[in-house]
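Supplementary Methods. Inverse-folding protocol.

Structures were first reduced to a discrete structure-token string of length 253. This string, shown here, constituted the complete conditioning input.
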């Protein structure tokens, strides 16, 4: 590893987890490179993603072509650059989703530190539904958060993760780990193994185990849903092994 200062780090008994954003996003556990939980889940087939990308690109092209005063360029390359410049391409939409996650997480932080519920009108219009949904969940459940915004890792299995939008909170059934999503739906095939990976790393770091792990999905309509995972650690480890197996051939290109 280089001498680059980590963006975030945590020390546990026998485990030192570091997260770096520059020069590229990466993790280290006890000084050794570690794959991220989300990277390992990249092994999963996500057939909806290409369709989503195509739809977003088509919608962006339509908006671009109908912009007042817009003149169609001579090359497709320039047209693609115009889409990016105006935020109409699928990568811009992905970045916007990340921004929504940051704002939603801020609601957790405000509640956890000051017991404040934000005013949705203080946020951009495209974020307000998510903020209202998050606020509604907090008001209805009054969660007591014990962990938020931490990095965890496994020295035994060589992976790590940053729990930016994951909180551990008390429930009637004991402590629960909740991952907040702004996606259009809960996707058990990827969301549940992700939770299993986080919980496996948490326990190896010596953090108190949670009784349940679930997804809190907040939507643009101001509503929310909670789905509880039934994934086991082995469900995530199977995907981690498959990802590592795939990387053997990727390096031979």
């Amino acid at each position: 590893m280089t001498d680059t200062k980590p963006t975030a780090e945590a020390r546990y008994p026998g485990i030192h987890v570091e997260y770096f954003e520059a020069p590229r996003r990466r993790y280290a556990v006890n000084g050794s490179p570690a794959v991220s939980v989300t990277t390992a889940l990249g092994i999963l087939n996500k057939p909806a993603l290409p369709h989503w990308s195509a739809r977003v690109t088509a919608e962006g092209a339509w908006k671009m072509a109908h912009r007042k005063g817009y003149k169609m360029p001579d090359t497709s390359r320039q047209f693609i650059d115009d889409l990016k410049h105006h935020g109409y391409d699928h990568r811009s939409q992905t970045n916007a989703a990340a921004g929504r996650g940051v704002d939603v997480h801020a609601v957790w932080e405000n509640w956890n530190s000051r017991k404040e519920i934000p005013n949705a009108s203080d946020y951009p219009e495209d974020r307000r539904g998510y903020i209202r949904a998050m606020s509604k969940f907090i008001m209805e459940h009054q969660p007591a958060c014990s962990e938020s915004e931490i990095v965890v890792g496994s020295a035994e299995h060589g992976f790590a993760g940053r729990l930016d939008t994951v909180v551990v909170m008390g429930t009637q059934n004991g402590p629960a780990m909740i991952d907040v999503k702004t996606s259009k739906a809960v996707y058990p095939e990827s969301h549940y193994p992700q939770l299993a990976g986080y919980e496996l790393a948490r326990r190896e770091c010596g953090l108190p185990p949670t009784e349940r792990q679930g997804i809190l999905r907040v939507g643009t309509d101001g509503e929310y849903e909670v789905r509880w995972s039934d994934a086991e650690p082995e469900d995530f480890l199977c995907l981690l092994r498959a990802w590592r197996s795939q990387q053997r051939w990727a390096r031979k290109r």
